[in-house]
Write a structure and sequence with these properties.
alpha/beta, 21% strand, 35% helix, 4 helices, CheY-like_superfamily, single chain, 5-stranded parallel sheet, Bact_response_regulator, Response regulator, phosphoprotein, Sig_transdc_resp-reg_receiver, 124 residues
């Protein structure tokens, strides 16, 4: 399977970034990884990212705060949150679209891939 979409992974845990990078590349996606929300926001990938996969709890700026910042900038990127703190999903601001999904760590790889494929199909 060959996919041309660029997916951005944001997680402060290097092992998660490496694992997701390998998984997504094995499905043909172009992947960019970032150790923090601030790294992603200062990158050149804001306009080319088709889907974000982001941790929620990170030092400096949480995934939710990053999502709010993207909305403030007028950038609408579908986002899938992954979290090591499952339970009730955190609330996002009322003026931003709801995240696509929340996955607890560890997550089912097949379910994550299916979710990404669904997001990209809707965006096409």
């Amino acid at each position: 399977m060959s996919n041309t979409a660029t997916l951005s992974i944001i997680d402060d845990d290097e092992s998660v970034r490496i694992a997701l990078d390998g998984l997504l590349r094995s499905h043909g996606y172009r992947v960019k990884t970032y150790a923090s929300a601030l790294d992603f926001l200062s990158s050149c990938e804001l306009e080319t990212t088709a889907c974000l996969i982001s941790d929620i709890q990170m030092p400096g700026m949480t995934g939710i705060q990053m999502y709010d910042r993207l909305s403030t900038l007028g950038i609408r990127i579908p986002i899938i949150f992954i979290t090591g703190y499952p339970g009730v999903p955190p609330r996002v601001s009322a003026d931003v679209p709801e995240p696509v999904a929340f996955f607890p760590k560890p997550f089912d790889c097949a379910e994550l891939i299916a979710c990404i494929e669904s997001v990209l199909a809707r965006s096409a």
